[in-house]
Design brief:
The chain contains 13 helices and 8 strands. By secondary structure, it is α/β, with parallel strands linked by helices. The protein folds into 2 domains: 233 residues, TIM Barrel, CATH 3.20.20.60; 44 residues, no CATH class. The strands form 2 sheets. A 5-stranded parallel β-sheet has the order 2-3-4-5-6. It has a 3-stranded parallel β-sheet with strand order 1-8-7. Helix 5 links the parallel strand 3 and strand 4. The longest helix has 20 residues. The termini are far apart. This is Oxaloacetate decarboxylase.
Length: 290
Amino acid sequence: MTASALRAILASDRVTHVPGVYDPVTAALAVAAGHRAVHLSGAAVSAIMLGRPDLGFVHGTQIADRASALVPALGDIPLIADADTGYGNPLHAVWTALAYARAGISGLHLEDQASPKRCGHLAGKEIIDIGEAAAKITALADQAPNIVVIARTDAYSVRGLDETIVRCRAYAEAGADAVFPEGVDDLAELRLVHAALPGVPLVINRSEAGGARPSLTDADLAEVGVRLVLHPVAALLAAMRAASLTYRAIADGGTAEPVDRMPWAAFTALVGQDEALDLDARYVPGRLQT
């Protein structure tokens, strides 16, 4: 159901901003804010679960496990998850996609970096052969049709725009639902990608890891075929900043009062405390019956 909702978003003529979530509480907050889709980043999972950078420490099984915990908080809102390079050959990529689908993930993005990968915004990246990358996408389209496939290419920083366009076209022809030309931020260059791939939805990244990006309006982006804008770690970085300020305030002054925080009542409402207590009253006996 949510995969079809995600495909409908890609088929629309508007831009949808997709924030990162990483647990049931952030998922619930994103839903409450009115978002139409959300994202689970490999970098976020690596940081939250392991305290490690996005350098291949996390496998798809861990991302699927994390997704299964937060999907119930999303209702009908689709979740897009980072599938790295598919974690191997086309058969491994299919296994990853099926595991993601079982976890409730609606769509994934698969990149064409060589393994072991480097974080998408670091220098020294290498990309695999275009045929090898396309074979993974074809395998997913054939064997995991219930999950949306977003084909990401990291060719731009390695071989430039022309190679990026060639790869995006090949991946769309291989069966990708959308293409993700990582690093292409200039409106004129996005227009060239769109002109070369009419009717193919584009996905772009607004991760803080990429540094300053051009300021483009949604109207500009929609005109050049962009349908999804990912904000994978914005909420995580905001939460880490708030936690840092809170710990510092307690260490310095013995209280968190100087720090703006969610009221306790809002927190308990978010996690459904009243509903849980009502269930206890309804189903749990007040005393043992003998």
